[in-house]
Amino acid sequence: MIAWVDERLGRVTMYRMLTIGLLALAAVATVLAATGVLFVEPLAVLVSAAVAVGASVAGAWGAALVCRTRPHTESAVITGLILLFLFWPTLEARYLGTLALAAVVANASKYLLAWRGRHVLNPAALGAFVIGLTGWDASTWWVADRWLLVPVLLLVVVIVLRTRRYALVGTFVVAATAFVAIRLVTGGADALDAVSTALVSYPILFLAGVMLTEPLTLPPRRWQQLLEAVVVAAVFAVPYHLGPLYSTPEAALLVGNLLAFGFGQRGAVRLTLTRQRRLTPRTVELAFRADRPVRFRPGQWVELTVPHPRPDARGTRRVFSVSSAPGDGELTVALTVPERASTFKRALGSLPVGARVRATGLGGDFLLPDDPARPLLLVAGGIGVTPFASQLAALVAAGERRDVVLVHAVTDHADLAYADVAAAAGARVLVLSPTPDADGLPAGAVHLGARRLTPELLAEAVPDLAGRDAYASGPPAMVDHTRALLRGAGVRRVRTDAFSGY
């Protein structure tokens, strides 16, 4: 069920999904205000929303004009909607003005406080923080209301399912709830009441799901993200007052953003397309040369930005697993191009040699164990073989031999991309395909048949299955099925890489 929901959520970009989710939350808040449940005026919610979004879009266009670049209107809309829930809805011109100023500052920061194409601080948090410093207004985070708890929780669940940030959001929610509850208990509150108050009256869920998960201000590795979550939770829960600085949720998030900036390769990388080649009838590989050295590990992903006219709901940014080994001099990605491809895929696939694109992120934890003695099982669904191609190519480049079994599920033997890389690495290749016989299989590959992968089939083909470290990569439904299958077969270590919305 989760995989089914995830695949459908993946049909739209995170920008579009978050816009819809925040608009729905604003609509719920307006209805609750109109019925007297929320102690705000419904007209104030609508007017504040219009001012926040309008000023945010205007600020984005103005900053983009000054910086001679293209504005991202949908991102500006999201920033405005977030700010709506941070400042108390009002009809007073003075406070509507400070709300508009917060939106302008937030969007200006995306262009002025940026490092090599990536903004450093969460824009909405920075806008609220700056307004708080001036003393003209203060954030209230009125979204932390018991009547909005369920709608906010639903929005956070959708975001977590879409982004698969289970560990990040869960770590922050648990840590922040614990820290706040401990402080309340120390002040004399009952333990259960303290936990309830932390979850209901503090914006823990909204901060975790809507703001902490912003990808452009997250560090690239999982352990770094979890560390950031704990640090933000601690700063969030501890009250302090240092001159004009007060303990606020936005200040805590900005501390986490600065910590994240210190990790990894944070800047954008300019790439030049050097060649294209067709791997299979439906798969194309693109090779790029970077203007400066690109640091990544085999199995990690790269986020490409390709601006193009009239983008569809998938947007202008997509994440791809790198299929080349580090140090090759090129960075390659592969993509399937269906008959009804997204505007992004059409734009990327039609780029001429010499075209320039931006890599706005590199990261991921889909990494092989450092110990070369540990046997491996790699299970790929279709184009999900790309991270394995990078890992196997890196083994070949290092002259390292490992005990590797690669199970590749495809719709046709012709779709077996990177079979040459697997052969060069000495991997044993097992193929699941509806193709009725072994015709067309790479040399040495074994056809497991057309059936879906089962514990019995896998145990027969890989007798030492339980002693292997397992990795699964591909569509979410396939990855979830494979993980459950491997767990049931006794495999203790299973790492996954779901190509959500691919």
From TrEMBL:
Its cofactor is FAD. GO terms for molecular function: 2 iron, 2 sulfur cluster binding; metal ion binding; oxidoreductase activity. PANTHER family: NADH OXIDOREDUCTASE HCR. The chain crosses the membrane at residues 43-66, 73-89, 95-113, 120-138, 144-161, 166-185, 191-213, 225-242. Residues 266-369 form the FAD-binding FR-type domain. Pfam families: NAD_binding_1. This is FAD-dependent oxidoreductase. Keywords: 2Fe-2S, FAD, Flavoprotein, Iron, Iron-sulfur, Membrane, Metal-binding, Oxidoreductase, Transmembrane, Transmembrane helix.
